[in-house]
Amino acid sequence: MMRQNECVSFTSSPELDQIRPVLADAAELARAALIDSAEGGVGEYLGVTAEDRSAATHRFRAELQGYRGWQWAVVVAAPEDADVATISEIVLLPGPDALVAPAWLPWDERIRPGDLGPGDLLPPRHQDPRLVPGYVVTGDPAVDDVALELGLGRTQVPSREERLDAAERWHDGDFGPGSEMAKAAPSTCGLCGFFLPIAGSLSAAFGVCGNEYSADGRVVHVEYGCGAHSDTELPTGAGSPQFDPYDDAALEVVATPPAPEAAEPEAATPEAATTEVAAPEAESEAIADAAEQDDRSTD
After folding, report:
1. CA torsion angle for 159, 190, 192, 114 (degrees, to 10)?
2. How many CA atoms does the CB half-sphere of 130 hold within 13 Å?
3. Which long-range contacts (CB under 8 A, 24 or more apart) does 187-190 make?
4. Parallel, antiparallel or unpaired: strands 70-77 and 131-133
5. pLDDT tens digits, 87-97
6. CA angle 217, 206, 198 (to 5 degrees)
């Protein structure tokens, strides 16, 4: 008979420290039983431990692919008056350094926040401690209609423990008072115009943010805050200018063409010099003639 479970036992109780020789000497019998089982992979002998006065377990290293650190355990048995042991059980068990799969968990314990996707169904656990019975429908429309109008028409409501757990998660989360955003905020959500209070016992500490540029639609603590608070004021001079600034200190360098070379003056001719010299004499003669004519007119 072969099975895989539990793990190899290495110690015996004090009263079983002395293993009966008929059990301790059955190592080769145990190895032969392993070989006959056709499982293969029988390695070195690792020792024997007592299970009780009539049984002992011989261990061998398992040399099977994918079973690193596992051991073969062969249980041999012999009654008090027996001279020969017999094979009772063959087991493949993990050793202290074996590679084993994680411990199995039920599905409802494996679910983590964020695992639920579109189309998935996640019913609450049986007798879920997060829920307690709510209003029970009586069948009387006069009573039930009023109960539904007051919000008492749910068959289950959050338990006290669930409300406390939710409050702790929200308080310690990204939108709680201890977040980096809240520490740098100019004010708190409880004083913000975008803060939408919730109903129920959690309304004293939590609400929903209605600012699309901040924690829009998230449950926030009243002591959480951000830079988009409704009373936030920009410092003087902040904002975007309407026109680009003009820098009057900037210099514009423009390349200009070189100036043309000045022409050399021509040498004066003798005729020009004579004319320039004669010009004053001719002017003096003209003035004398005009004066003489004036004298004649007077006479």
Report:
1. -30
2. 7
3. 187/225, 187/229, 187/231, 187/232, 188/222, 188/223, 188/224, 188/225, 189/220, 189/221, 189/222, 189/223, 189/224, 189/225, 189/229, 190/222, 190/223
4. unpaired
5. 999 999 998 88
6. 70
In angstroms, rounded to a whole number, what is the distance separating the alpha carbons of residues 47 and 71?
11
> Which of 185, 180, 169 lies closest to 225 in space, CA to CA?
185
Close Cβ partners of 217 (under 8 Å, ≥ 6 residues apart): 208, 209
Mean pLDDT of the region 131-145: 71
Q: What is the pLDDT of residues 210-236, one digit of tens each?
A: 999 899 999 999 999 998 888 887 666
Pairing of strands 156-158, 55-62: unpaired
What confidence category does residue 273 fall into, taking pLDDT thresholds of 50, 70 and 90? very low
Tokens 């692919």 belong to 65
Burial of 14 (0-12, 13-18, 19+ CB in 10 A): exposed
Count of alpha carbons within 13 Å of 201, Cβ hemisphere only? 10
Q: Per the structure block, which two tokens stand in for 103?
A: 């411990």
pTM: 0.45
pLDDT > 70 in the chain, percent: 72
Q: For residues 17 and 52, give the distance between their C-alpha atoms in angstroms, rounded to a whole number.
A: 10
DSSP annotation of 135 reads: P
